[in-house]
């Protein structure tokens, strides 16, 4: 049985938990991170020198970086319907996974830390507004892509890309600021909310 180290209110940990539910992967989980065991301990740093969650332990194999972990789980535990073997189809899924991790994630950071986490280090309102504008720009890109596919991020079928972006959409709707209405994103959110695992780990009120 695999082990997942990380708290359940972490968006990156929830990627793994959602995927495990989709693939019926049995797992054990330990709380690590803010409010729980510190990832700065020597014990944890031996597993992940970055001191970040999640960490996956599969027998004697240890892996960190959430998007790498979900790719591994899909490859190792029968998730080819979520992470296609066809090179071009897989590349499209990877494109949107990486877009979330690099472009979308970086756009919201300052606004989230100010509006939700109330971080003392993120109190510059000009930077907050810049973050909101960048976040909105990227949600517009997502809206256009969803209009193109009419279904999911990388095409007609649910994939790993929807796990990382579906959690991001939840974060968009829960962060308190005035938003542009993106109709295709809203429909996508409703479509994902028909999935039991998304209701448990995505649309569950956690930001």
From TrEMBL:
What Gene3D superfamilies does the database record attribute to this sequence? 1.20.1050.10, Glutaredoxin
Q: Does the keyword Transferase apply?
A: yes
Domain GST C-terminal stretches: 86-207
The protein's superkingdom reads Bacteria
Q: Name one Pfam family in it.
A: GST_N
Single Gene Ontology MF annotation: transferase activity
Q: Which residues form the GST N-terminal domain?
A: 1-81
CDD domains with a match to the protein in the record: GST_C_2 (cd03180), GST_N_2 (cd03047)
The record's keywords, sorted A to Z, are: Transferase
The UniProt family comment states: Belongs to the GST superfamily.
Q: What is this protein called?
A: Glutathione S-transferase
* UniProt organism field: Acinetobacter nematophilus
């Amino acid at each position: 049985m695999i082990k997942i180290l990380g708290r359940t209110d972490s968006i990156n940990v929830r990627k793994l938990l959602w995927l495990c539910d989709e693939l019926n992967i049995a797992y054990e989980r330990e709380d690590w991170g803010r409010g729980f065991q510190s990832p700065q301990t020597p014990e944890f740093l031996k597993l992940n020198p970055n001191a970040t969650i999640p960490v996956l332990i599969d027998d004697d194999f240890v892996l960190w970086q959430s998007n790498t972990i979900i790719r591994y789980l899909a490859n190792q535990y029968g998730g080819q319907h979520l992470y296609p073997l066809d090179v071009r189809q897989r590349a499209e899924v990877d494109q949107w996974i990486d877009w979330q991790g690099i472009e979308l994630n970086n756009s919201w950071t300052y606004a989230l830390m100010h509006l939700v986490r109330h971080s003392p280090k993120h109190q510059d309102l000009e930077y907050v507004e810049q973050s909101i504008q960048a976040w909105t720009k990227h949600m517009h890109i997502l809206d256009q892509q969803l209009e193109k596919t009419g279904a999911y991020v990388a095409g007609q079928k649910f994939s790993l890309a929807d796990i990382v972006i579906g959690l991001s959409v939840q974060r968009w709707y829960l962060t308190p600021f005035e938003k542009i209405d993106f109709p295709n994103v809203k429909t996508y959110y409703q479509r994902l909310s028909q999935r039991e695992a998304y209701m448990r780990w995505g649309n569950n009120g956690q930001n």
